[in-house]
Amino acid sequence: MASPRDAMITGIGLVSCLGDGVDAHWASLMREGGCQPVVDHTSFAPWPVHPMTALELDRQIPRRGDQRQMEAWQRIGTYAAGLALDSAGMKGNADLLSRMDMIVAAGGGERDYAVDTAILSALPSAADPGAYLNEHLLSDLRPTLFLAQLSNLLAGNISIVHGVVGSSRTFMGEESAGTDAVRIACARIAAGQGDLFLVGGSYNAQRADVLLHYEMGRLLWKQPFAGVWHRQVQSGGMILGSVGCFLVIESREHAATRGAANLAHIAAIATDRSRRRPGEATAIATHQFDAMRQHLDPSHAAVISGASGAPAATMEEAEFLRDLRLPVRATASAFGHSLEPSFPANLAIAAISLANRRLFPPLEASELETPMAAELRQVLVTSWGHWRGEALAVVEAA
Amino acid sequence: MARSDVDSRGRPVVVVTGTGVLTSLGNGKQDNWRELTAGHSGIRRISRFPVAGLRTTIAGTIDFVPVDELSAPALSQRLAEFVIDEAVDEAAIGSSGDFPGPMFLALPPVEMEWPQRLALAAASGANETVTYDDLLRAAGTGRFARYHERFLFGSVAENLAVRFGTKGSPVATSTACASGATAIQLGVEAIRRGECEAALVIGTDASVNPESLIRFSLLSALSTRNDPPEAAARPFSKDRDGFVMAEGAGALVLESLAHARARGANIIGVIEGCGEMADGFHRTRSSPDGKPITACMQHALDDAGLTPDAIGYINAHGTGTPENDKMEWVGASAVFGERAASIPISSNKSMIGHTLTAAGAVEAIFTLLSLRHGRLPPTINYDTPDPTLPVDCVPNVARDAQVAHAISNSFGFGGQNVCLVVGTP
């Protein structure tokens, strides 16, 4: 039953290798003959990555000075935030923006590779290694790089470029940052602690330093592109993707009052954690699902999975999903795994699909990814972090 | 008259039943309060790493807490463990390793640091020129898997959640130098919406390392008055020249008043209101009109259901940068009018330095202790008043004062502004 405090998605900004904006994503997912993910196999060989589509940054970040103050991850996120505000019909509305609450899921920015490699090469043979490090960091680091790397400066840039200033909070913690950002926005709306939220994040996968981080954990796929489920037949692994996604989430009554179109309804959301001993993530996901299943109509429901491809979690999630007997789509097979914005992006894909009343075709040949002919009315969105964090949401047609 | 369990808007009143604090002044509330009210400084010459060539050679480092394989997240986690132990012990809530509520953690951004990068470079066997390809090759050996976990943004909160048995997904937040106050606000909101009866809130920061220090130095944010170190942090003084980086941690057990009463808990103070307002003017500077800072304080007062007249003390953000102290005065003047010059407003940072991510939590605790003990910590090094900032900064010597309501300000890069109103039980 509709409540004035329902959390409605009224704006979506989404950019990835599949394109710029909601329509480009839907067209790509519905492509005759199947979605064709864009994969860069050469720049970071042997690691494939999904590169960001070319963005006309001037459209959302008009001042070149602002663009120069940001690293790629901030530009992607600020651009996607602008798309979301456009989509919600709020761009430039100072009254709304001044009381809009923002929760950003963020990692950090990339290294200056030239500075790093010069120091790493020369420091071990320097007469005074400590002094050498100090001297070169002081003289070689760009002063503005700090702010371009700093986690909360994606939010800061959105405040500067788009004027979102009601509040600004940044969550950190890979996939969980994205799931908790959405959960807390929805909880605040339900409790009357806010009416209007901008929630999302961004990720730049085209970076040697993030590949280095996940390679240390030996979590990356190092072969030619394959879908998330297919990778598990061998050793599993993640293919990272550059993604930016922001959602405007607002109370049903607030959207109605300002005449905003509802794109979808976040009907339920739960987040949790486990230590990931075998079966623990499944136990949490089952508990989350049991609390939501009474409202689910399986004949019109599907799953958008955030499976990362990282072996243990993805294989356990596959078993969990098999038991649900619903058509599944793992979007990491389409635009890669993107950590912080992965869950917001999957909510966006769910909302787009619901707005079109249909699920897009399977992304790979897998027993989980069955075709769906029935009208789509509900989507379960999963997020099992590559290391920690389990979340589940139900998104419904508005 | 005893407080009602709900506030004027019908929301659960949120109280503090346990606190823990660790700064360069010492480990624990007792040592910190003694040193703070004695006007002592924890700022010293840096001994953790070579300072040759640096413009700033001082900080409030925590050198008395040993940690395996030092890094900012490793020491931040260790400091958090100490202060959580102290806070949970004081609150006498839950049982060991089983805290009955969620965790909100203010944490500095995490990334791999130079010792680890150099270890990878050494392991790669590359001669002369080391590239990221060499590091990647070394990473693929699997010998550095522990770095993957250590330098995730989520692992400090995860490890603390495991150790202390908090419930649900732990939230790690960063709003730059306002982070600690944001974490408190997240906890207050969770209790107010009835999601939990108790929440564990922490701010921790141990990121004094060469690159972090140099990054702030390149933004001209740090004091270069290295000698003597304890005289460098000079909030509100005419000759202030920047903040002093420091490490520390603070933890608070928040509870609904009803829950605290029902279990007979000792109530230390009340988080009466939280306010925030982002500033879209500039990445590191406040709007010249001070409007976001003003609005932030007003929002906190509104949230607390109080008028400016009720406030008897301001625990300043008070970094000692020329910009911050000026804008904080502009904001206070706008909110408090003529009273602004007579409300005591002191800066803990004059003694403990700027504990960055932890500051909002550490200073909220010191504000609670100020109310509880009826004693306001001073602003030390106040020798040369700035005539444009006619503040009563409790100069140099602590002062007895009975205060019922105080505010604690936190402002940060990226237009972050958070203000808390705290009160006596």
Structure in words:
- The complex is a heterodimer of chains A (398) and B (425).
- With 398 residues, chain A is an alpha/beta fold.
- Chain A contains 16 helices and 11 strands.
- In chain A, strands 1, 2, 3, 4, 5, 6, 7, 8, 9, 10 and 11 form an 11-stranded mixed β-sheet that branches.
- In chain A, β8, α14 and β9 form a beta-alpha-beta unit.
- In chain A, α3 packs across α8 and α13 packs parallel to α14 (311-324).
- The N and C termini of chain A lie close together (12 Å).
- In chain A, 61% of the residues are buried.
- Chain B is α/β, with parallel strands linked by helices.
- In chain B, the strands form 3 sheets. In chain B, strands 1, 2, 5, 6, 7, 8, 9, 10, 11, 14 and 15 form an 11-stranded mixed β-sheet that branches.
- In chain B, α11 links the parallel β10 (313-315) and β11.
- In chain B, α2 runs parallel beside α6.
- Chain B is globular and about 75 Å long.
- β4 (167-172) of chain A pairs antiparallel with β6 of chain B.
Ranges of chain A where pLDDT stays below 50 over 5 or more residues in a row are none
**Radius of gyration of chain A from CA coordinates:** 21 Å
> What low-confidence regions of chain B span 5 or more consecutive residues with pLDDT below 50?
none
- How many structural domains can be distinguished in the coordinates of chain A? 2
Annotated CATH topology of the largest domain in chain A: Peroxisomal Thiolase, Chain A, domain 1
Cα radius of gyration of chain B in angstroms: 21 Å
Spell out the helices and strands of chain B N to C.
Answer: EEHEEHEHHHHEHEHEHEHEHEHHEEEE
What helical percentage do the residues of chain A reach? 25-40%
Query: Under the CATH scheme, which class of the largest domain in chain A?
Result: Alpha Beta
Put simply, the count of helices of chain A is: 16
Number of strands of chain A: 11
Kindly report the average pLDDT value of chain B.
97
Q: Helix- and strand-based class of chain A?
A: alpha/beta
Q: Give the assembly state of these chains.
A: heterodimer
Head-to-tail CA distance between termini of chain A: 12 Å
Helix proportion range of chain B:
25-40%
Any idea what the CATH architecture of the largest domain in chain A is?
A: 3-Layer(aba) Sandwich
Query: Could you give a short account of the major beta sheet of chain A?
Result: 11 strands, mixed
Q: In one word, what is the shape of chain A? A: globular
